[in-house]
Amino acid sequence: MASDGKLKLLGLWTSPFVIRVRLMLNLNGLSYEYVEEDVKNKSELLLGSNPVHKKVLVLLHDGKPICESQVIVQYIDEVFGAAGHLILPADPYDRATARFWAAYVDDKVGPAWRTMLFAQSIEENVDGATQAIAALETLEGAFQDCSKGKDYFGGDKAGIVDIVLGGYLAWFNVFEKMIGVRVMDAERTPLLAAWADRFRALDAARGILLEDVDKVLDFLKAFFS
């Protein structure tokens, strides 16, 4: 990775929003200091860096804080992307389309993720899974249009939609074991299922997509106890 020495990420390893920022940093070959936060006992650095929401995640660049994952991802793109890995198309219409679908992922997959994570009943789990499946079925069509027959939403390489959805992708196997429902299924969404295999194989994704499902479940058990 390129040596920068000016980037520090305050995060939580299981967070899909932290995962997407780490993906973006890795795609651009940037070195950074990662600081794992105890979200039940937040550091003064975190609270001072994000005084509005007082939560992970925060990227510090030269000591200046940037908050909110999609804002951070686009900041990295603007500052480092030209020499690394640009994630937004050059064409204004294509760029607007990519931003629309990235927002759709957080608007639809995000609430489904929260529902499944914090569910208090089987019914809530099923409701969350149903929401996620419906969103992914819509994204199947978006992938076909955005990819233009190539490997990623961004075409030949991962773009902003790939990165935003990739953060949630890390959780799909976790939810399958938690609630017994396969959210991303090759029969329902074959294009996305193939995309997921390619995305998981990226060097930038290695070690951060929650491959050890049991470790995540142990974390959740301790977190909610």
TrEMBL record:
It holds the Pfam family GST_C_2. It comes from the Eukaryota. Residues 5-84 form the GST N-terminal domain. GO terms for molecular function: glutathione transferase activity. Residues 91-224 form the GST C-terminal domain. Its EC number is 2.5.1.18. Its main location: cytoplasm. It is found in: Cytoplasm, Cytosol. GO terms for cellular component: cytosol. The keyword Glycosyltransferase does not apply. Keywords: Cytoplasm, Transferase. PROSITE patterns: GST_CTER (PS50405), GST_NTER (PS50404). Gene3D superfamilies: 1.20.1050.10, Glutaredoxin. It catalyses: RX + glutathione = an S-substituted glutathione + a halide anion + H(+). InterPro entries: Glutathione-S-Trfase_C-like, Glutathione-S-Trfase_C_sf, Glutathione_S-Trfase, Glutathione_S-Trfase_N, GST_C_Tau, Omega/Tau-like, Thioredoxin-like_sf. One of its GO terms (biological process) is glutathione metabolic process. Belongs to the GST superfamily. Tau family. Is involved in the conjugation of reduced glutathione to a wide number of exogenous and endogenous hydrophobic electrophiles. This is Glutathione S-transferase. It comes from Panicum miliaceum (Proso millet).
